[in-house]
Specification:
The protein is of the alpha/beta class. The chain has 18 helices and 21 strands.
Length: 466
């Protein structure tokens, strides 16, 4: 009997359910369901549609049943930092506000009145991003204190879906670390910090590690989808899953998990919470097996996705890459990490305004705008590689690009050129592969991470850019 494992992989712009199984030592994937995702305006706030997403998850489970490929286990991974607050009856308090909403503006200052930025980094090792859970909770405390008073449980997004599936409340470690409230020393919530900030301690569930079985489907879900399985927590932060799928067993590489965001970094056994690391805005997020993902958050393909929408989605990403290549001599550059690109009304206009403000030539065509984005990203990657090498005191010979961005051939060429390193692109479905791999490791299909990564290397195409 073939054993199937199901990854529910939900990113900021789309979600997918992917079945995986082993065949002659190789991992074989099959996409069973795909759906759109994005934030919608509700009461003037940018919110996620979790009810709709849960219906999509169940629709995907029903498709597994129709195919006659019933998984033995499943796990959900999503983006980081966002969460829901539940009252004692398990009902969501307030809107399901997303990280691009502007409610966190000024909340960093509120947090730093209680604990200075450097001290916060020393305690958590997490880079400052205005949308981290720590600042989102401060926004709730200032604007809706009644929610915190009624809150019984805080669940990050993947934990919330696991709860809807099983009725069990858990918080998975890799996702929790993104919020800036976990200690890298104890690998548990920093309760002292939580108390200082005035967030109710009782909301925070005991942390579980990736690979932990959570439980079976609830009776209601079983009746609706037609079968039962075990829900196993993967590295529920999508980057944590993607990094597990990097097809390499040495340590001579830097990875880029490339999608809506580009997460560029290294795997390490210890966190670096030094002032110097803080100054470089590098972060120590949790990884599989208690490791750390020492990385930088870079704006990534969000900019190109937004511009594509503004051109009515008329062109595929491959066509846009081609147009960018044709306009490759266009000289202007932007800071791919500038705050103005996080959630602009119009990305195209924002890029043009940035070039205008900085006295550069203003891009007019889609090709020119795309080449500005791609070259700016590649240069940002090169600077980040230098920072990582400075912090570790060593140089790395290659870059592994995993995730959807591995398909952006032109960007990969620019990255190889800007960094002076060999670029290995693929696998593109790294997040789903990492999610499935964690389930397979738990089931004993692989004896170790090394064995799993060898299988991943043999199972998927890797393209090399010199």
């Amino acid at each position: 009997m073939t054993k199937y494992y199901l990854a529910v992989d939900i990113g900021a712009s789309s979600g997918r359910l992917i079945l995986g199984h082993l065949e002659n030592g190789k991992i074989v994937l099959e996409e069973v369901h795909r759906f759109e995702n994005g934030m919608v305006k509700k009461d003037g706030e940018l919110c996620w549609e979790f009810d709709r997403l849960f219906v999509e998850i169940k629709d995907g489970l029903k498709k597994c049943k129709e195919l006659g490929k019933i998984p033995v286990s499943m796990g959900v991974d999503t983006w980081g930092v966002d969460y829901v607050l539940l009252d004692e009856a398990g009902q969501v308090l307030g809107n399901t506000v997303g990280y691009r909403d502007h409610r966190t503006e000024g909340m960093d200052e509120e947090v730093y009145k209680i604990i200075p930025q450097e001290k916060l980094y020393e305690r958590t090792g997490i880079q400052k991003e205005i949308f981290n859970t720590i600042y989102q909770l401060m926004a709730v405390k200032k604007k809706h204190p009644e929610y915190l008073e009624k809150a019984d449980t805080l669940l990050h997004v993947p934990d919330y879906f696991h709860y809807l599936l099983t009725g069990k409340k858990t918080c998975e470690y890799t996702e929790a670390t993104t919020g800036q409230l976990v200690s890298p020393l104890t690998k548990d919530w920093d309760y002292e910090l939580i108390d200082m900030l005035g967030y109710p301690r009782k909301m925070f569930q005991k942390l579980i590690m990736p690979g932990t079985p959570i439980g079976h489907l609830t009776k209601e879900v079983q009746e609706e989808v037609g079968f039962d399985l075990v829900v196993v927590a993967p590295a529920t932060h999508d980057t944590g899953s993607a990094v597990l799928a990097v097809p390499a067993n040495d340590d001579d590489f830097i990875y880029i998990s490339s999608g809506t965001w580009s997460l560029m970094g290294l795997e390490r056994k210890e966190a670096d919470c030094s002032l110097k690391s803080c100054g470089m805005n590098l972060t120590n997020e949790g990884g599989y097996g208690g490791r750390f993902r020492y990385l930088k958050n870079i704006m990534g393909l969000w900019m190109i996705q937004s511009v594509r929408h503004e051109f009515q989605d008329k062109y595929g990403f491959g066509e846009i890459c081609q147009m960018a290549e044709e306009a490759k001599d266009f000289p202007s550059r932007v800071d791919a990490n500038a705050q103005c690109f996080l959630s602009p009304e119009n990305m195209t206009k924002e890029i043009q305004d940035y070039c205008r403000r900085t006295g550069q030539q203003v891009p007019e065509t889609l090709g020119q705008i795309a080449t500005v984005i791609y070259t700016s990203l590649a240069e940002c990657y090169a600077r980040t590689a230098k920072s990582l090498e400075e912090m570790t005191g060593r140089t790395y010979s290659r870059i592994h690009i995993v995730g959807g961005g591995a398909n952006a051939g032109y960007l990969n060429e620019l990255t190889a050129k800007a960094t002076g390193k060999e670029v290995h692109a693929g696998p593109t479905e790294a997040t789903a592969i990492g999610n499935i791999t964690a389930q397979m490791l738990e089931a004993g299909e692989f004896r170790s991470v090394e064995e799993a990564r060898t299988a991943i290397h043999q199972s998927f195409d890797i393209k090399i850019y010199k």
